[in-house]
Amino acid sequence: MDNRENKIKKAYDSVRISEDSRQKVLDALLAQERKETVITMTQTGKNFRKKAVKHSASMIAAVFAAAVMTVTAGAYAYSRFFHKEGVAEYVGKETVEMIEEQGNALGQVAENEHFRMTLDTILSNGSNARLFMTVDALDDEAKEMLGKKSPNVRLRYADSNETLYIEQMELIDEPADGSFTFQIIVFSDNTDFSRKMILDFIDPNADFASLGTEEIPEEFFKGFEGLSFEADLSQNYEVAELHSEDGRLVRLSRAGVEVLREGAITEPDGEGYDEDEAPCVYLIRNDGTREKAEIFSEFVNFDDNGHTELYHGDIKDINEYSGVEVDGVLYTR
Amino acid sequence: MTAQEKRATEENGIAAVYERQYMTVYRVCFSFLRNEADASDMMQETFMRYMTCDEVPAPGRHETAWLVMTAGNLCRNFLRDHRNRISPDELDISSLADVSGGEDAEVLAAVMSLPEKYKTAVYLYYYEGMDTQTISEYTGERHSTVRSRLKRARDILRKILGGDPNG
Question: Do strands A295-301 and A179-186 pair parallel, antiparallel, or not at all (unpaired)?
Fold first, then answer.
């Protein structure tokens, strides 16, 4: 257990309740227990039986299967964010404003009778992309379904239908009232971001992970018909490539600092990668002054190349910077 | 065994459950509500829910996770209904001194200032020592959600508590 964990644990330990409050609550609970016992005895005498009305997962699936799926709409576009706050949770308010100013708030919507999917925006630097989407349940069955699982997403090349590996799907909010914004991160050395791609949605109960890149059975799309997007993941913001003296590379962009590292990184069990071990990053301004990069989000690609991605929320203009320092190594233009 | 029969056993009787879990529930409620009166009320409500739940969680980690999640949900509802009375502003550390005896007030204030949705995961992870997979299994939340929330919470705590991540 590290220092921080100890401190947090100790801080929780320091919370105290007065003996008076503790006893009052216990007394109230015991009184309630006695009351419940009396009621139960009375109800048992009358052969009373409480019925719980619950929809099982299989029942929901049956409702979905039996429903006639009418695709009511294709994709249409808006010019501003529908889910500005949802996207801001991931990238920060300043970046959301910037995306709107640059006209990259896509607001592409596709819906059927159960779900509305919005492709809020795509941020791509040409070697990785972040897609922000919001799903809204339009009926009770869909709402209940989303309450249990999020829809699976399949990304494929439009021209070949080859399925792509999605690095991570990140959710901050569990669905509240059947609606939530999520982030899909795509970064892989093997992905060709210049090719058009298609996003499809698949039954959350389908075991998509075990399918790999094989063809997905039709029944997995039930309930999600018509919810496909054509997505352009090609680079849509400026990137500067900076090099160290020994030829190593980082990419600097509005979305952050991307550090490329050699050698495999092993993901530890349990919690996963510990971002406390992330490199210390300084941005070097054109006048030579240094400022510590404020990293608010980070993703690590656990592949053979050991590819680390760091995001920074405050780079307003990359041209204000001449270099980056990562763990004491200077990278310049 | 029905839920009522389970609750009738000594191990699951409300007095026994309360004795082993009241501090857990109280800490969680306090981290949301920041005062003893409201935290006690929500603690009581949490145990009331336990007394009427359809599926009694097994004593141990499942029971802890169930109570923490229930307490968190009740506190969120309470805060929604009492926005005018309870300020979402940052906690005044000096007001915590009485509660924590002056120790660790800064860390506690930082934890309490976290967004509501991060608090239960932070408690289960840091205090109860559960890994994210276990939290996910017991709470029914997606593993990716639990991981994301912990990650975001750590980022916020690091910002509030200073640059040294271990400090």
Answer: unpaired
